Amino acid sequence: MDAQRGYIGLTDPDWYAFLSAHPRVDEVNFWQPHGNRTFRAIKPGEPFFFKLRAPLKEIAGFGFFERFESLPAWLAWECFGEMNGAPDFESMIDRIARLRGDGGSSTGDFQIGCVMITAPVFFTKDEWVAPPSNWAKTGIQQGKTYPLDSGEGNRVFRECLERANRGDRYWNVEQVAEDAPRYGLPSMVRPRLGQGLFSLAVRDAYHGACAVTGEHSGPVLEAAHIVPYGRGGEHRVDNGLLLRSDLHRLYDRGYVTVTPDYEFRVGESLREEFNNGRSYYSLSGSTIAVPDNALWQPKRERLEWHQQEVFRG
Which of 54, 75, 162, 277 has the fewest CB atoms within 10 Å around its CB? Predict the structure, then answer.
């Protein structure tokens, strides 16, 4: 078995300051201004440490690497919103454009690199961890991988764990082993997906096409929860459907549903309340597309819940 590793990435202080002010952050997008370099330094589930740029230079938090993808900036914002480390889309685009040095595009139709991190913890200034003693002094090093079972990598990891275990800061993980400590080696915990990673995972599972209509136009597609997150549903692919945005709204409001047999249905309430809906009734009775992977297919008991608890009929 390969030794566990962690990655220490040079981090923008403004990104850290914005996100550390948010309580209970379950995921962040550690974006790169250019999307032409794939991040392969560590594997999913291994820790990613946030080392602040000069003049601060300390390690101010960490999380667990989940996936890397080159995405249009607009899609990164739609998926992660403020968890991109900016208060609004315009602010994010302005910061990226300055770092790219090419003006970018106000519509965000250029690619950026997205290093997606789950279960992040941000430290207060008095908790910051000293960087590895062998970190380059020149200021040109952007990031470095360290083994976690020895040397400076082990020291950094242990100090970060000690800080993260203070209070109720480390909440968005599942314990893998019954006798595992609350924090341990990465293999002992499994971070849960947040909304942004859920959205991307559902898009992938449905090959970027609406489950009902087959529509492939990215800007109008949305990942819908079958059981809403606010009502106990999880950010899991088998609790999701990729829907065109109008169908997503109708689904959330109960005007349409999907049966446990994967049949799309439109309720009479749409016609009764709005005296319309002609473009939707033609879809009623059709069979939706489902992911190839059986583990990602919508759980039938969740579809039944939506039909009984949300669908207006």
Answer: 54
User: How many structural domains is the chain composed of?
Assistant: 2
Q: Is 148 helix (H, G, I), strand (E, B) or coil?
A: coil
Instruction: List strands edge to edge, sheet with 27-32.
Output: 27-32, 111-122, 59-72, 47-52, 5-11, 143-147
Average pLDDT over residues 95-119: 88
41-84 pLDDT, tens digit each: 999 989 999 999 988 989 999 999 999 999 999 999 999 999 99
Contact criterion met (CB below 8 Å) for 45 and 186: yes
Label residue 43 exposed, middle or buried (CB < 10 Å: 0-12, 13-18, 19+): exposed
Domain that holds residue 15: 5-191
Residues 151 and 232 both lie in one domain: no
pLDDT of residue 182: 46
Nearest to 116 by CA among 5, 201, 205, 216: 201
Considering the domain architecture, whether residues 179 and 212 belong to the same structural domain is answered as no
CA 238 from centroid of its chain's CA atoms: 16
- What is the sign, positive or negative, of the torsion defined by CA atoms of 39, 296, 212, 79? negative
Task: Indicate if 165 and 238 belong to the same structural domain.
Answer: no
The total of other beta-carbon atoms located within 10 Å of residue 251's CB is: 23
